[in-house]
Amino acid sequence: MTGEPRGPSPPPAAPDHLGTLIEQIVEAVQTGNDVEVRRLLARLADDVAHTQALLVLRQRLNDDLPP
């Protein structure tokens, strides 16, 4: 142990089909396409049991926040 602070661990990988959906949500958020965001989130809600997918989405959206 080096005594250096560690950042949060990255979330586990989401299943491939959810990873694609997450990237589509991130893109819709980045472009400000509210209608598409709602549509895609409704699709993601069908897979809400995939906690890792929600964690990946959270991480991807946070990646674009300014420091």
Describe this structure in words.
This protein is 61% helix and 0% strand. The mean pLDDT is 79. It is flat. The longest helix has 16 residues, at 16-31. Helix 1 runs antiparallel to helix 2. The protein contains 3 helices and no strands.
Task: Show the helix and strand layout.
Layout: H1 16-31, H2 34-45, H3 51-63
Features:
61% helix, mainly alpha, flat, 67 residues
Distance between the termini: 27 Å
* Residue share in helix: 55-70%
Query: If you average the pLDDT, what whole number results?
Result: 79
Strand segment tally: 0
If you compute it from the alpha carbons, what radius of gyration comes out, rounded to the nearest whole angstrom?
Answer: 14 Å
Question: Structural class, judged by helices and strands?
Answer: mainly alpha
Weakly predicted, low-confidence segments? none
Largest sheet: none
Strand percentage:
under 5%
Q: Choose one word for the global shape.
A: flat
Number of helical stretches of at least 4 residues: 3
Order of helices and strands: HHH
Give a quick rundown of the structure.
With 67 residues, this protein is mainly alpha-helical. The protein has helices at residues 16-31, 34-45, 51-63.
